[in-house]
Amino acid sequence: xxxxxxxxxxxxxxVVAVVMFSGCGDDGMSGESSGVNDFLSRFSESxxxxxxxxxxxxxxxxxxxxxxxxxxxxxLSNYGGDCYAPGTPATVxxxxxxxxxxxxxxxxxxxxxxxxxxxxxxxxxxLIANFKAITYYTITANVAPAGAGTVSISPELPRYPDTMTxxxxxxxxxxxxxxxxxxxxxxxSANPIIWTKNGNWxxxxxxxxxxxxxxxxxxxxxxxxxxxxxxxxxxxxxxLNYETANSWCYNNINSNCATxxxxxxxxxxxSACPSGWSLPDTADWNALVRAAGGWEMAGTxxxxxxxxxxxxxxxxxxxxxxxxxxxxNTDGTFYHAGTLGYWWSATESGSGYAYFRDMSSDLANVYxxxxxxxxxxxxxxxx
Length: 383
What we know:
Layout: H1 3-10, E1 20-21, H2 36-40, E2 43-46, E3 51-54, E4 62-68, E5 74-76, E6 80-84, E7 88-97, E8 101-108, E9 116-121, E10 125-133, E11 136-137, E12 139-144, E13 149-154, E14 160-161, E15 166-172, E16 179-184, E17 193-195, E18 201-208, E19 211-217, E20 222-228, E21 234-236, E22 247-248, H3 254-260, E23 263-264, H4 266-270, H5 282-291, H6 298-302, E24 327-328, E25 334-335, E26 340-348, E27 353-360, E28 367-372
Parallel strand pairs: 1-3, 4-10, 12-18
Antiparallel strand pairs: 2-3, 4-6, 5-7, 7-9, 8-10, 11-14, 13-15, 15-17, 16-18, 19-20, 20-21, 22-23, 24-25, 26-27, 27-28
């Protein structure tokens, strides 16, 4: 039997399987054929890795033909060749994948991405295991100026296969006085970056020293330290301490206001900042967290170097000096001074709720959470 005759028989539904046959005489196709199903029911006995021979299946039984789009891509548990009674399950697995190849999934009788599939044999079936050669890329990350910070790449490899997810994070060095201000070599402002780009990539993490200053609130002559990070907004580097309705000192002790500032309901905080200043919204907080090394470690960068319980002090690397003022519950009780710091955001979260940022003595993270507007939290102001 001619090879092209076999291929013509397999060209059904735009699916082409190229299979090597051996031990097949011209009489394998003698007589009238009722179509491809009749043909397939008569071949596919395994002849080793990648070869098949024609077999005769009993009338009413079905054959399974198994192939690979790239023979070098990997090996399979079987390559067909068995005859199956109607309704019998047939299981095929990818048993190994050659280095520098991906297994991308099956086509034909099953389209699963899993390495093992089971097919119920109610007709003659063709199953193809698909592999893809891996392309590798490199990532080069620099820091400007040198010594201002570090860039970590996770996982850290000499080269990266396409489709791998890679996290790239820029962090200011403790004690350097620098803050992260953005990337060169990419349009994203995210920190960390979750890499989805294919191709060799060179990028630079840029850092600047924050600009420190002071501001005096003319309403009560309170003077605040301020910090401006890169081209962003200027932040108060202390918690707001201006008395309004629905604001409290922790445990109603005045000296706690001198240490931690006041605790405000959301509505009170929205109107408590001096003229020209405002409560930061989610975008403002996001920019600050990026500058401090990303949410997973910004807490360490932003927390003050003293005042946190359980050895939870931060580095205060950019002069933000976040203190753990605790919070006031809506029932009037106070909790967790020295351990937790909660700061309102101007961004609402549905009716009666708003977002806040959370730092803890036992975590390096900065979290965004929502809470009822009646809670008493700290406030920072930006301009």
